[in-house]
TrEMBL record:
Pfam families: Hydrolase. This is Putative hydrolase of the HAD superfamily. Keywords: Hydrolase. GO terms for molecular function: hydrolase activity.
Length: 235
């Protein structure tokens, strides 16, 4: 029997990755005199991965990685005005309005009547917390957790803190490595709702083969899925 429905935030409740992709395209424009776009994209992806252990996930780390990439690819020749533009691009991302997926609030209000609700998201604490409150959804959640990594140890610690049996949890998100696999390993249920684009550090090459794994195309399908699951348990 489910007790807790947990959600990823970025690209599950609201759009985020498209903003990163648009900003990365602008970085390619800025650096076109120093390197072709393909080289810029590859260099930024490599720098981001290397910097995650220092800066963590999120817009601030992404912005610092853009600056580092710009300096590296230009051999230090990039102008101060261009560095300033890159920094301002990051600030614009931090101040961007929230764009919720259609139907998210209705789904949450429906589920709230029967289950505990949680957000489990990784990234910069201040940025992610601000997003939750800017979204207008904060009051619908019993728990909001911003973590540095989403792995088995992190989920296990959270469920233990909340006195929740992992088998009674459903985690919903767009990333198989972060939102799906760790929860399945703990014996929980996991629902993958792919986003139209995927961050380089969240790409996966093989789907889980687990009885508690489900893939949907829209968050609005969640209430019906849960109803079907609970009906099967009664039979």
């Amino acid at each position: 029997m489910l007790r807790l429905i947990a959600f990823d935030a970025d690209d599950t409740l609201w759009h985020t990755e498209d903003m990163f992709q648009d900003t990365q395209k602008r970085l390619g424009d800025i650096l076109e005199q120093y390197a072709p776009r393909e080289k810029v994209d590859a260099a930024l992806g490599k720098t981001e991965k290397q910097n995650i252990k220092l800066f963590g996930y999120g817009i601030k780390g992404f912005t610092l990685s853009m600056v580092e990439t710009a300096i590296d690819l230009s051999d230090g020749r990039i102008e101060a005005q261009q560095i300033h533009e890159i920094v301002m691009m990051g600030k614009k991302m931090l101040d961007a309005p929230m764009r919720l997926f259609i139907g998210v609030e209705d789904v949450l209000r429906t589920l709230k009547q029967r289950y505990l609700l949680a957000i489990i998201t990784k990234g910069d604490l201040l940025d992610q917390t601000n997003k939750v409150y800017k979204s207008g959804l904060a009051d619908l959640f019993d728990y909001v957790e911003v973590v540095s990594e989403k792995d088995v140890a992190t989920y296990s610690a959270l469920f233990q803190e909340w006195s929740i049996d992992p088998a009674s949890v459903m985690m919903i998100g767009n990333s198989v490595p972060s939102d799906i696999v760790p929860v399945l390993e703990l014996g929980g249920h996991a629902v993958h709702i792919p986003y139209e684009m995927t961050a380089v550090h969240e790409i996966h090459h093989k789907d889980p083969t687990h009885q508690n794994f489900t893939r949907l195309t829209d968050i609005c399908e969640i209430p019906d899925l849960i109803d079907q699951m609970e009906l099967r348990e009664l039979i």
